[in-house]
Write a structure and sequence with these properties.
The complex is a heterodimer of chains A (about 110) and B (about 120).
Chain A (H helix, E strand, L loop, with lengths): L3 E4 L2 E4 L5 E7 L7 E6 L6 E5 L3 E2 L7 E6 L2 E6 L9 E6 L6 E2 L3 E5 L1
Parallel strand pairs in A: 2-11
Antiparallel strand pairs in A: 1-3, 3-8, 4-5, 4-9, 5-6, 7-8, 9-10, 9-11
Chain B lengths: L2 E5 L2 E3 L5 E8 L8 E6 L5 E7 L6 E3 L7 E6 L4 E6 L8 E8 L8 E4 L3 E5 L2
Parallel strand pairs in B: 2-11
Antiparallel strand pairs in B: 1-3, 3-8, 4-5, 4-9, 5-6, 7-8, 9-10, 9-11
Classes of the chains: A mainly beta (about 110), B mainly beta (about 120).
């Protein structure tokens, strides 16, 4: 099973600042990686797929990068809506696995 | 727009059974793979299953293989998860999700709001 490790577990950021979230796979997943946002009490929402493609309706302040084992989700200027938990997910191998999440909180 | 509504959750004793449903609308249901993902209280996400657009291919995680079955009725735009021999560790919110229309199945494009399953004596 591919283990996805996200860091940091919690990221404290002020509104308007940049946030950088990391996701590392225990073996290569090529570019078969997605990111989801989960606000408190809500279902997850797809942000990014194929490592760097924004899903429909996702603002340009979200960007993704990486391939192989190391991936990054960047939020260029945090808005109030962006304080949430973010999960990475690999779909390169079986079973599909998620990272444990990074909580982005207001500093 | 895509709308997914899960139902059927509730409290069940260990060893019991439950059937979850997911009603889909806003898209051509029979064109898409579908999936179940779960989230234990306060925990992260865990993929449970995929089913192909015509129901001919099913994928299950090892943690539920042999206990859960997934099916669909394209005439009713509905997805199902039959859960048998339930264990405490199956307690979670269960989400249905639409998957990008390709094989092998990949990421989860749209999610329902989830239904809570609690396994407890």
């Amino acid at each position: 099973e591919i283990v996805m490790t996200q860091s940091p577990a919690t990221l404290s950021v002020s509104p308007g600042e940049r946030a950088t979230l990391s996701c590392r796979a225990s073996q290569s997943v090529s570019s078969n990686l997605a990111w989801y946002q989960q606000r408190r009490g809500q279902a997850p929402r797809l942000l990014m797929y194929d490592s760097s493609t924004r899903a429909t309706g996702i603002p340009a302040r979200f960007s993704g990068s990486g391939s192989g084992t190391d991936f990054t989700l960047t939020i260029s200027s945090l808005q109030s809506d962006d304080f949430a938990v973010y999960y990475c997910h690999q779909y390169n191998d079986w079973p599909r696995t998620f990272g444990q999440g990074t909580k982005v909180e207001i500093e | 727009q895509v709308h997914l509504v899960e139902s059927g959750g509730g409290l069940v004793k260990p060893g019991g059974s439950l059937r979850l449903s997911c009603a889909a609308s806003g898209f051509i249901f029979s064109d898409y793979y579908m999936s179940w993902i779960r989230q234990a209280p306060g925990k992260g996400l865990e993929w449970v299953s995929y089913i192909s657009s015509d129901g001919s291919a099913v994928y299950l995680s090892d943690s539920v293989e042999g206990r859960f079955t997934v099916s669909r009725d394209n005439a009713k735009n509905s997805l199902y998860l039959q859960m048998n021999s339930l264990r405490d560790e199956d307690t979670a919110v269960y989400y249905c999700a639409r998957v990008k229309n390709e094989a092998p199945p990949t990421y989860f494009q749209h999610w329902g709001q989830g239904t809570l399953v609690t396994v407890s004596s």
